[in-house]
């Protein structure tokens, strides 16, 4: 947005300069027309003189006026050429700035689209993380329930001693394995004696 504002300010400055050049151009044209009016006035003035005076005055005045007009026209043509060149350059700069504004706006739109997609992905990941956390809590609760049942089954048997404190998972597994081994041995012993 800052880049667009800067480009628009530059464009406004260039357009203001372009308007100034066009105003000066119009002023030069106006001065040229005024010179033509002056020349016509001189011409009308000499029409009232005698033929001989008229011819002499006309020759002198026309030569002088021609020199002046030629100089003015040369200067004005030079100024017009410079101003036309400046106008062309300013127009090119304005066109370039407009293109940069369009490019910057497109870039901003692309960035907004990417940001929107990233936000959507972040929301999806957050939702998935929440689901995973709920599932993990459920599994943990289930695991604790099974673990307590195993501990209860393991240490509630006749002849078993209560655990001295908090049991680790390995200690619970060892106790279970011990009971399984003992039951397996007892079943084998009964089978050897022929009992069901």
From TrEMBL:
UniProt protein name: CCD27 protein
Enumerate the UniProt keywords alphabetically. Answer: Coiled coil
Segments forming a coiled coil: 4-31
